[in-house]
Amino acid sequence: LEAAYNEGDAWLDELQQYLSKNMDYVIEQLTKIPGIKINKPQATYLVWIDYRETGLEETEIMNRLLTIGKLALDPGTKYSEAGRGFLRMNVAAPFETIKDGVERFKKALQ
User: Fold this and answer.
1) Is the predicted pLDDT of residue 69 greater than 80, yes or no?
2) What ranges make up the beta strands (E) of the chain?
């Protein structure tokens, strides 16, 4: 633990850059879909996807993601009713995994 605090700066900087790259990719690609909005978070590896303007209800978007895209994301209502209209995506993964997830998301909403 002491080593992480005393010698972990370079690793942490690399991790933050990697996660930022993943986040930027997700935002760039998914916001091309009509009705999808994403604000880049500042202190987390979790992206909140706002799909309220797609006209889809939570059950419909979750069904599309699972059956068409074979992709499981957390619905916002898992956390509270205020999360309705949002999905949560974790971008702390290898870039190829993120890229695959984005393609599955796009396929589900075509």
Assistant:
1) yes
2) 37-38, 46-50, 74-75, 86-90
Does 82 score more than 80 pLDDT?
A: yes
Residue 75's DSSP bridge partners are: 87
Report the distance separating Cα 31 and Cα 70, nearest Å: 20
pTM: 0.89
**Strand 46-50 to 74-75 pairing:** unpaired
Q: DSSP letter at 74? A: E
CA angle 28, 32, 25 (to 5 degrees): 15
Q: How far apart are CA 64 and CA 44, in angstroms?
A: 26
Task: State the Rg of the chain over Cα.
Answer: 15
